[in-house]
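Recap from last week: sequence in, structure out.
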Amino acid sequence: MKNLSRIALLSAVSILLAACSDPPVDDSAANKATVVDGAMGNGMSSNGLKGMDLNALGAMSALEDDKNYAVGGVQPTIYFGFDQFSLDDKAQAVVSHYVRYLSTKPNLPIVLEGNCDERGSSEYNMALGERRAKAVRDALVVSGIATSRIKVVSFGEEKPAAEGHDETAWALNRRVDMKFPQQ
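Predicted structure tokens:
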């Protein structure tokens, strides 16, 4: 019963936070990965990173090399339905698993990479990828993970997990990957 109450609370908070409107996405950055929130213990505040083009920083290759290995047999990937950014029960279970893991490693940063399938405009998909990553961030924060450890990045449709133009590929591309760069 306690877990059910916790899940209900997390869902309610996610819905409330999702209802807050985000500013429109800058069209000039539509095809670039952009840091939208968070810091990585590199001395920069989240305000110093917000909106910076990762390609200009030369950090794209660094993010590509970040580790997202399964911990305890649970893959660090959360999948979403078409045009959705709320966490379902399976996603909540993955978040809970990684909250336990992150609680044992208090200095470990986490990067949340929001992704979309190819449908929709580049601008829309960048914003949706951001909403997905922020939904996961919010669930982590509600569960006790410090915001300062979390960086949110949206790749939109630019980093597909699966090539293809069918529901099978699209389902694999609608996701948030959790990466642990200093693991």
